Amino acid sequence: MKQMKRLSLLTLFAALMVFMAACGGGASSNKSQGTNNKGNKELSGSLSISGSSAMQPLVAAAAEEFMAENPKVDIQVQAGGSGTGLSQVAEGSVQIGNSDVFAEEKEGIPADKLVDHKVAVVGITAAVNPKVGIKDITKDDLIKVFTGKITNWKELGGKDQKIVLVNRPDSSGTRAVFNKFALDGATPAEGITEDSSNTVKKIISETDGAIGYLAFSYFTDDLVTPLSIDGVKPTAENVQSGKFPVWAYEHSYTKGEPDGLAKAFLDYLMSEDVQNNLLKEQGYLPVTKMKVERDAKGNQKDL
Prior knowledge:
nine-stranded mixed sheet
């Protein structure tokens, strides 16, 4: 009897030790998992980004916030146009190439080797010097203005002022989007050519009779006047619903699937905080709020 009691006690003690070990192992596992979930790994290194000047304000602002949260990270954001961004990311001289157009739309770009990350939507419209005297234009008249068939604003009910065109270079994604969706593919006449959106805005504001085109994000004051097209105002709501025709995705391309710092930054661009707050502050639209979508050929359909 005593031996049986001793055996029972030993069995109970062994079971208790197994139970405590299991609990201990579970606690250790949960602690490790919690650390992984929090993503406490410190980011460091440098990231080079180039491309679309229309995207530059957004990406630069996001980079500034990202670097504030990750002090050991350095991000350089350069403009130069969508063609430049796509070429540089394809050749590996930058980790991210920003573009207003699909890579498939640019000649000489190996689109099959690039991965597209649609991080925002941009609305683009014609902008005029405030002294021009108009705020709305039909698409037909807009085409005539940019192709040189209308040369004076008085023909459109504005001032008796010669029209001065401010264009972008061929590498510009903003130009490609504007030509495709505002000018229906028409080739603009010769004019002042400037790639930087900030410089385009400055030229329009300082040149009587000037007209160019800018992303909505540059209409932060009354230095230039954004034009409605066919009576449709250039607003976020009209772009999201598909009523306003001149808009594009803002693409951040990588050569192959991103990893490391590039992936961390792209994930940050798609975060709730950036999509719901920073984009709006910078004049961009979140891709998640779009009620229509487009493919690389420009075909649009409801979501």
